[in-house]
From TrEMBL:
InterPro entries: Kinase-like_dom_sf, Prot_kinase_dom, Ser/Thr_kinase_AS. The gene is pkaB. The lineage of its organism: Bacteria, Bacillati, Actinomycetota, Actinomycetes, Kitasatosporales. It is an enzyme of class 2 (transferase). Coiled coil: none annotated. This is non-specific serine/threonine protein kinase. It comes from the Bacteria. Its EC number is 2.7.11.1. The chain crosses the membrane at residues 402-422. Gene3D superfamilies: Phosphorylase Kinase, domain 1 (3.30.200.20), Transferase(Phosphotransferase) domain 1 (1.10.510.10). One of its GO terms (molecular function) is protein serine/threonine kinase activity. Residues 290-304 have a biased composition (Acidic residues). Residues 9-289 form the Protein kinase domain. Residues 377-389 have a biased composition (Low complexity).
Length: 448
């Protein structure tokens, strides 16, 4: 059923749905396009429409082979739509759902494309803030690259930031104690620790998210994902990345550098793109890594811990130990994380229960984050290693947790996690980095 969008475009058929709206296959004066029609409640929000219009120049100005171009912005009655280049292919999430993990060469080729796209955006002063497999489109009509990878293009620039605002999105947390009132915008698995800690997001958050996507392409799971969203956030801040058995060392070192907790330790996007392309030839013929995902039952335990733990204690005025299900949806029966259960805007429905999407939640305080330091590490197992889950294994895990908990408590008591984290950033040299504005300012500021 065709539908007119403004005076110039016609939407013909739905390509897919996201949390902010529906993407249509359409056409306009210059041929086939993809039209992202924002949800009606978003389109009816005058403040939001104003921000989109204000952003017009930035959204339309990004022209790069690895960025999905925005061609037009339509504000027409109840419709608010972004007209984009049509990418004939699929998104990376769909490919990962099908293949689980990619061979290192293909994974690195995809990541290098995305890093190129990010480099262009950062140069133009735009931070993406929501790099994840759903936002990486694979152009099946493009030429095959290293490892048989199709060209990858990053989409949804600045959309998360534009759509998610404090206006009525969330109940405000009390402005007391060490709780910060800023919100976290993004998708839990890909959120850089400094965002969780409440620092303003800069270009390095995109590099962290891209490194997470690369890890996921190689491993079949993200480094800190699994269980309750609160547990995921804590792991980003407190845990080291578990090594991937069999990964070529050069690639592993690159991943570690870009997953560094301190933003200044990460590579910038152009350097990352260069390094990835440098190591590509050495990965030719390397098979996909043969590893197993950390156990689901462990994730379930972690989720249970989190639900009764200190993370959200008192955060929204609830009783200690309780948590607000509207903000932190419960874990599905069986312990597996409900992908797509955390809406971009409070109150919106998840577009597809199999899809991971954005989250919007308050930033936990340092002492709340410290509560996560007690042994939630999820180490991947080399294929063939005995699967955890036996009674003996569970007892060992419990004992290890107690030990780790005591150790963590000692560390936190001695130094204070907040102080530790602040010092990581305090001398990080982040200020010396290019000053990349968020996509909600009116005029792009050139990088220094
Ligand atoms: N420019 C495009 N060309 C072709 N298909 C697209 C284009 N943009 C998005 N799509 C497809 O439309 C679907 C929905 O995209 P959308 O960006 O709305 O949601 P998402 O990124 O999957 O989720 P969310 O917005 O909640 O993060 C995806 O399956 C994607 O593959």
């Amino acid at each position: 059923m065709a539908r007119k969008i403004g005076s110039r475009y016609t939407a013909h058929q739905i390509l897919g749905r996201g949390s902010a709206g529906t993407v249509w296959l359409g056409d306009g004066p210059e041929g086939a396009v993809a039209i992202k029609l924002l949800r009606e409640d978003l389109a009816a929000d005058q403040e939001l429409v104003g921000r989109f219009v204000q952003e017009r120049a930035a959204l339309l100005g990004l022209d790069h082979p690895h960025v999905v171009g925005v061609r037009d912005l339509v504000v027409d009655g109840n419709d608010l739509a972004l007209v984009m280049d049509l990418v004939r292919g699929t998104d990376l999430r769909t490919r990962l759902e099908r293949e689980r993990r990619l061979a290192p060469e293909a994974a690195v080729a995809v990541a290098a494309d995305v890093a190129d796209g990010l480099a262009a955006a950062h140069k133009a002063g735009i931070v993406h803030r929501d790099v994840k497999p759903e936002n990486v489109l694979l152009d099946m009509q493009g030429p095959l690259g290293p490892g048989g990878a199709h060209p990858a293009l990053l989409t949804d620039f600045g959309i998360a930031r534009l759509v998610d605002t404090p206006r009525r999105a969330l109940p405000q947390p009390p402005a007391a104690g060490n709780l910060r009132s800023a919100k976290v915008i993004g998708t839990p698995d890909y959120l850089a620790p400094e965002i969780i800690e409440g620092l303003p997001p800069r270009a390095s958050v995109d590099v962290y998210a891209l490194a997470t996507v690369l890890y996921e392409m190689l491993a079949g799971f993200t480094p800190f994902g699994g269980g309750h969203p609160g547990a995921v956030l804590r792991r980003h801040v407190t845990e080291a990345v578990a090594p991937l058995p069999g990964i070529p060392d050069e690639l592993w070192q690159l991943l570690l550098q870009c997953l560094a907790k301190a933003p200044a330790s990460r590579l910038r996007a152009p350097e990352l793109a260069t390094r990835l392309r440098e190591i590509l030839p050495g990965l030719a013929g390397h098979p996909p890594l043969d590893i197993d995902e950390p156990d689901g039952d462990q994730a379930a335990e972690e989720a249970a811990d989190t639900a009764t733990g200190p993370y959200v204690s008192g955060a929204t005025g609830s009783a200690p130990g309780a948590y607000d299900e509207a903000l932190y949806p419960p874990v599905a029966p069986g312990g597996s994380r409900p992908r797509g259960a955390v809406p971009l805007v409070h109150g919106s429905a998840a577009p597809d229960s199999n899809r991971e999407t954005h989250t919007s939640m308050r930033v936990p305080g340092p002492d709340e984050l410290a509560g996560g330091a007690h042994g939630t590490a999820r180490a991947p197992r080399a294929a063939g290693e005995p699967r955890a889950g036996s009674a003996r294994h569970r007892e060992a895990v419990r004992r290890r947790r107690v030990k780790l908990g005591l150790a963590a408590a000692a560390v936190v008591a001695a130094a204070g996690l907040g102080g530790w984290f602040a010092s990581q950033h305090g001398d990080s040299g982040e200020d010396a980095k290019p000053d990349v504005r968020h996509s909600d300012a009116a005029t792009p500021r050139p990088t220094r």
